[in-house]
C-alpha cells in the first residue's frame, strides 16, 4: 500500500487498523499539530499518497486546512457526521463509525484539483447561502458529493478545492428539489 492515512488520535488509529490491518497510519495527536509532524508528512508525500481522514468537527476541519496548506497533493476522505456519532450522540469521530462506512470513505477519497467554475454568486443563486433553507441544502449537497459538511464560506472553498463544477452542483441539487 502506497498510502498513508492521517488520523487525529489513537482511537481513530485502532478503528482504522481493525478495518484495514495493513494500512499505514499516522496520528496527529489532536488538533495541536506541530511543524515537525508537517515536515514528516511533506517528506512522506514525496513517495506516498497522504490521505487526510479526520473527524467531522471543528478540530478535524482545522487539521484538514493546515495539512492541505502544506501538502496540496493530500487526498481527503470524509465521513458524514451522523455516521460517526457515539452511541449517546454526544461525540463525533472516526472511532464511532462502522467498518463499512470507513471503507467507503477511504474508497471515495477526493484529490485537490483545479478547474471549478463555482462563484459566491452561483452559491447565492442556488440558495446554498443567504436563505433560511441554505443550511439544509448545503448539508444535502455535501453528503451527496461526500465532501464533509461546511458552512457557506467553507462550501465555496471546498467546492473550489476539489474542482467541483456548477453543473455537478446543479445535478445534485435537482435531487434535493425532487425530494
UniProtKB/TrEMBL annotation:
Enzyme Commission number, as recorded: 3.1.26.8
Catalytic reaction equation(s): Endonucleolytic cleavage of RNA, removing 21 and 42 nucleotides, respectively, from the 5'- and 3'-termini of a 5S-rRNA precursor
Compartments in which it is found: Cytoplasm
Domain annotation Toprim: ranges: 2-86
Keyword list, A-Z: Cytoplasm, Endonuclease, Hydrolase, Magnesium, Metal-binding, Nuclease, Ribosome biogenesis, RNA-binding, rRNA processing, rRNA-binding
Keyword Glycoprotein (UniProt): no
Source taxon at top rank: Bacteria
Described purpose of this protein according to its UniProt entry: Required for correct processing of both the 5' and 3' ends of 5S rRNA precursor. Cleaves both sides of a double-stranded region yielding mature 5S rRNA in one step.
Family that this chain belongs to: Belongs to the ribonuclease M5 family.
HAMAP family assigned to the protein according to its UniProt record, in alphabetical order: RNase_M5
Protein name: Ribonuclease M5
Amino acid at each position: 500500500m502506497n498510502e498513508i492515512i492521517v488520523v487525529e488520535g489513537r482511537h481513530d488509529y485502532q478503528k482504522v487498523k481493525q478495518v484495514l490491518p495493513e494500512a499505514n497510519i499516522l496520528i496527529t495527536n489532536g488538533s495541536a499539530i506541530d511543524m515537525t509532524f508537517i515536515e514528516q508528512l511533506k517528506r512522506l508525500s514525496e513517495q506516498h499518497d497522504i490521505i487526510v481522514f479526520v473527524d467531522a468537527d471543528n478540530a478535524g476541519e482545522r487539521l484538514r486546512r493546515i495539512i492541505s496548506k502544506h501538502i496540496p497533493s493530500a487526498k481527503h476522505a470524509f465521513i458524514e457526521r451522523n455516521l460517526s456519532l457515539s452511541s449517546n450522540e454526544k461525540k463525533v469521530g472516526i472511532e464511532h463509525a462502522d467498518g463499512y462506512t470507513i471503507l467507503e470513505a477511504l474508497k471515495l477519497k477526493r484529490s485537490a484539483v483545479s478547474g471549478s467554475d463555482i462563484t459566491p454568486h452561483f452559491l447565492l443563486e442556488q440558495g446554498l447561502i443567504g436563505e433560511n433553507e441554505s443550511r439544509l441544502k448545503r448539508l444535502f449537497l455535501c453528503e451527496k458529493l461526500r465532501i464533509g459538511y461546511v458552512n457557506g464560506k467553507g462550501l465555496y472553498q471546498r467546492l473550489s478545492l476539489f474542482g467541483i463544477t456548477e453543473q455537478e452542483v446543479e445535478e445534485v441539487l435537482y435531487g434535493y428539489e425532487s425530494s
